[in-house]
Amino acid sequence: MRILHTADWHLGRILHGVHLTDDQAHVLEQFISMAKDVRPDAIIVAGDIYDRALPPPEAVELLDETLARLVAETTAHIVIIAGNHDSPTRLGFGSVLLRTARVHLHTRFTSTPRPLTLTDKHGPVRIWPLAYAEPAQARSVTKDNAISSHEDVFVHLLGNIRAHIARLPGGRDVLAAHATVVGAETSADAADAAERPLAIGGAEAVPPALFDGFHYVALGHLHRAQRAGAAHIRYAGSPLKYSSAEVTHEKSATLVELDARGDARTELLPLTPRRDLRIITGTLKDLLHRAQDDPARDDYIMAELMDTLPVPDPKERLRQFYPNILTVRPRGLELAGGGADTARRELLGKAARSPLELFMEFHAFATGERPDEETRALMQEVISAVRRKRREDAA
Ligand SMILES: [Mn+2]
User: Which fold has domain 275-349?
Assistant: First the structure.
């Protein structure tokens, strides 16, 4: 059985004022080609189809076209679950009708999920779709008052599913879920993050041991493609970089081959964006200089200026080379003490460290190198002199 696993399309995503619909159309075109190429029995889209509950019209149009083409140009069954960004009712429109066209949209939380059963020469494979729900919603639907966390939601659902499986003849079982799994790496820390935490303070994460017995777990929510606790529990990741926290990601879809025994072999099939999303760091002069030989000036650019004095019109000057520049952050000014901004707060948070350690860290950050022995000795002298002076003043 062959499954193509993807997630977190976030259609309608706007990044720093730029609508990414054309970029999403570009990468979904690749996904359609990929699906035609690898001929999967099933395609799983593990939640966050849209970026928000009320998506812009062009996002709805893009999903409509993409689903129509996947149905027309492949023979795959398409299993879609709702994520925390999706509106169950809006995304679920037409789901009963769409089922007749091999599109299985599961957007409303239910206490007893029903599987899609597909069969290959080794027997049945059941795909269990778990639509996302907040613990409070799950408690209200299930009337199970023991539910107060995301883990409780899974304990409840998987208990019901295991009881169902126990009544069935053998087979292989695949889960589609939208969740944070303990040990996986999030990209939710940036101010512009597209991953929205599911709960405050890490209470959202569920242990991978919950999924024991399932042959493959197709996860959505975290945007980096990765395994979560075991090789057969995986995030497909988003098809595009959706925030500054994702600039180092390599995006892909995950091809899953489930053998006769249910062992899952996975392969990442790369997706190439129309434009990359990059952070460039340096003084304005450096950046303008380097831009001249930059072969990818069309990329989406986030510039971090290391100038320690204000420079006029940095964004407009960079835009001459980078027409798709998104943001300019005056990091040098922030670090030099230019206001109560994030970088300064970061530094203040490091107050427990010695002034020399902080200096060395700043030196490394600003120049890319650790200070040499001479510089360190000089700085130590300055620090000692300041301390001496303070003690004398206080005396
Ligand atoms: Mn999500």
Answer: Double Stranded RNA Binding Domain (3.30.160)
